């Protein structure tokens, strides 16, 4: 196999081998670092990756120095014509590095790191081109993270956390793109890039706090200093598919198939319930998310039009979404069955239903993006041995946000948002509150989707 060999400079704390360009498209080098264990491996990886970066960024050509023979012309042309694109992929963290097995050389730990020009070019051109292969349990991505020291975390820690969040975001994007994700029916069809990106960002934001359960392993490939004592790191991250799929489906269920209570006049309630059911939306009297329909008839007697407003609110009256029909699309003369006829026609018009579907979808996304539905936790004060710690204890529960504590009669009431099931929250609270409660602390009762009572 033909190859081009360029000598690398020797730097302190680590030594480099030669950069080799092989005619299959691989550019590789070896690097060594003093010592044993993960610290030496990481240092050697960083050194090799940095040397490859310098080679790709340098003014190098894929040909022999004596001009007697040249590399495979197609590879040389790809590399020559597309260096800017390859560098963009390198800077954005889309370059796929191959890490060899570490080996010992005297007192040093050494390894080989390679990057393939053709594969890297392909992945840099299509950021979500990784295939979601059903026979593989993981997805591997290369990402860049940046960080500055803050709140006791070093710049490296913050940069690595940022990179892991980006890795999860990218894999979520791949999952959504390549699996035509939607809810049980049609309410959550992803119709454009804006909706896709918004949903991906929301899901990755919600899931990033659980990255420990999603990331199987990761290894640093390169790092460089940024201004103001910041650090940029390049990581190769292996993401577990099964827990990511499970969590993704949980979020999609919350967004696409919530449980709602319909509040509407007799004319609208059965039609609205039927339409929601067709979209995979469960309706029930105990739900804390409400779909509220209001209407007015406008216009002269011979040309009545229906103005219909549908809102999505929770029991605390927080508004998550609103839809108004287009009254100009249909008009009917006044009659005994006017309202029924206008309602029926409205729910038979595809353009009306499309905008209603979009409004409902955005409303359910808003519920999740704000942290879930508002819940009220009512605890009889006499059961708490350390009531002053109630806010701190509840705030440590994963997924809980916007905690507020107030007193109501003989109860301490905690208002909070939680993205999961109310019964699930009740069980978590039962365990969490044991540390600040009396021995006779009762089991929590789920009164409805909004209220949990400890009485």
Terminal Cα span: 78 Å
Instruction: Estimate the strand proportion.
Output: 25-35%
CATH architecture of the largest domain: Roll
Shape: flat
Give the integer mean of the pLDDT values: 78
By CATH reckoning, the class of the largest domain would read Alpha Beta
**How does the helix and strand content classify structurally?**
alpha+beta
- Compute the number of structural domains: 4
Number of helices: 13
Main pleated sheet: 7 strands, antiparallel
Low-confidence stretches: 1-16, 62-74, 121-129, 180-191
- Percent helix, as a range, is 25-40%
Which helices and strands, and how do they pair?
Blueprint: E1 3-6, E2 14-16, E3 19-22, E4 26-34, H1 38-57, H2 73-81, H3 83-92, E5 97-99, E6 103-105, E7 108-116, H4 117-125, E8 138-147, H5 155-178, H6 193-208, H7 211-214, E9 215-226, E10 230-240, H8 241-256, E11 259-263, H9 269-278, E12 282-283, E13 289-298, E14 305-314, E15 319-324, H10 338-346, H11 350-369, E16 373-380, H12 390-395, E17 401-408, E18 411-418, H13 422-432, E19 445-446, E20 451-454
Parallel strand pairs: 11-12, 11-13, 16-20
Antiparallel strand pairs: 1-3, 2-4, 3-4, 4-7, 5-7, 6-7, 8-10, 9-10, 13-14, 14-15, 16-18, 17-18, 19-20
């Amino acid at each position: 196999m033909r190859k081009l060999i360029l000598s690398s400079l020797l730097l302190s704390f680590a030594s480099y081998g030669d950069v080799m360009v092989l005619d299959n498209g691989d550019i590789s080098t070896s690097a060594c670092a003093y010592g044993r264990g993960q610290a030496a491996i990481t240092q050697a990886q960083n050194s090799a990756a940095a040397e490859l970066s310098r080679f790709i960024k340098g003014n190098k050509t894929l040909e022999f120095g004596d001009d007697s023979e040249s590399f495979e012309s197609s590879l040389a042309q790809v590399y020559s014509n597309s260096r800017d694109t390859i560098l963009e992929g390198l800077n954005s963290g889309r370059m796929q590095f191959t890490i060899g097995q570490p080996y010992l050389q005297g007192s040093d730990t050494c390894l080989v790191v390679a990057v393939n020009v053709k594969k890297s070019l392909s992945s840099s051109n299509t950021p979500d081109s990784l295939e979601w292969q059903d026979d593989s349990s993981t997805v591997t991505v290369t990402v860049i993270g940046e960080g500055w020291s803050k709140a006791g975390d070093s710049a490296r820690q913050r940069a690595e956390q940022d990179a892991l969040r980006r890795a999860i975001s990218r894999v979520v994007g791949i999952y959504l793109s390549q699996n035509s994700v939607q809810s049980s029916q049609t309410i959550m069809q992803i119709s454009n890039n804006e909706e896709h990106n918004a949903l991906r960002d929301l899901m990755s934001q919600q899931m990033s706090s659980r990255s420990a359960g999603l990331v199987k392993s990761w290894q640093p490939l390169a790092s460089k200093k940024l201004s103001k004592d910041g650090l940029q790191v390049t990581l190769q991250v292996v993401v577990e598919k099964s827990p990511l799929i499970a969590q993704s489906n949980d979020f999609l269920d919350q967004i696409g198939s919530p449980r709602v209570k319909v509040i509407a006049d007799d004319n609208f309630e059965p039609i609205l319930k039927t339409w929601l059911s067709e979209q995979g939306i469960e309706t029930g009297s105990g739900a804390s998310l409400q779909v509220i329909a209001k209407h007015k008839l406008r216009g002269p007697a011979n040309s009545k039009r229906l103005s219909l407003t549908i809102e999505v609110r929770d029991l605390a009256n927080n508004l998550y979404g609103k839809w108004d029909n287009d009254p100009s699309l249909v008009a009917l003369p006044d009659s005994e069955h006017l309202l029924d006829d206008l309602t029926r026609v409205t729910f038979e018009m595809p353009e009306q239903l499309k905008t209603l579907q979009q409004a409902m979808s955005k409303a359910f996304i808003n519920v999740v993006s704000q942290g879930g539905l508002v819940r009220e936790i009512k605890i009889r004060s006499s059961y708490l041995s350390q009531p002053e710690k109630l806010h701190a204890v509840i705030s440590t529960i994963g997924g809980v946000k916007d905690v507020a504590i107030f007193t109501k009669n003989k109860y301490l009431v905690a208002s909070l948002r939680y993205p999961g099931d109310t019964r699930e929250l009740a069980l978590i609270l039962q365990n969490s509150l044991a540390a600040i409660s009396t021995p006779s602390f009762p089991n929590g009762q789920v009164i409805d989707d909004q209220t949990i009572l400890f009485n």
